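Give me the fold.
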Amino acid sequence: MPTTAPTTSKDFHNSFRNAVKTMDFRQLQTILFKQNQSVQAPWPLMRVTNEAFYTYTWLLGGTPFRFEDYVLRYDPKKEPPQLQDDIDKVLETIPFSYRHFSKGIGPQDDMPNFRQLFSNFTLAHKGMSFTGGTNKDDWFRIGNENFIFCCICIGDQPAYRDAITLKRKWYSPIDAADIGDCWSSCDFLTPFRDINTASEAKQKIKKKEVMAPLSKKLICPPLFRGTGEEILRGAVSAMLEEAATHKLDRDSMLKLPHDVLARLLADLFGSRMEVKIAVGALPLNSSTPWKISPIYKGP
């Protein structure tokens, strides 16, 4: 779909408000494509949708809310030396990986035939159809539709404990070294669905009130950003900290089954730890682009 000349700021805000009334994200796509070529980049798309939804829609005034402002950069070098050694030992011993889960093709769920992953925004911009877990709130409230979603797995066990990973027959492995910029969080859709103002959104993040839906436990860290390898180190750091609260040291944690470790990590993110890669397209592994998921339970 070609991009036309940018609209004025006033036109864009008015159009966005009208789109919100219907929550028709295909109407929003058209508005975003007209707004500016730069919104095709993941972070600018998030910024412009956050500002429009949380500020201009309700004419709140004050500073806009942007998720990206609360996505903190994780720096592994700032961890204490002993913790860095512990993280190294965990990563050497436990098989962590990134995986993107997908349905197959046709009634037999045959192997997907595409060799690149595309974000929903990229697919929409190309005029291609898309399916998956996308939601109107993803487009209007969060603005994360130009990121490619995946999850961290420990062995074959995902840290996204939801039926969606069990109902996907296929997965594509993604090398951590190939992920240059990504961010990790819980699933925001449920906790942010009833938030309509920038101030409410800010307080939700600042107080770490994005809570696990069942245990009501505060999730920490709610947001962190880095390379694929840095996010893995941040995840292990959080797991070691959580294990210590249960009086488990590093060596004790290493003895836990993969399923238990995946749940330990998932619970820090309300049972659904998502990793969002900041690219519109990502080539798959040329030799083994798709594998059958060992945890597949059927459609």
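The mean pLDDT is 83.
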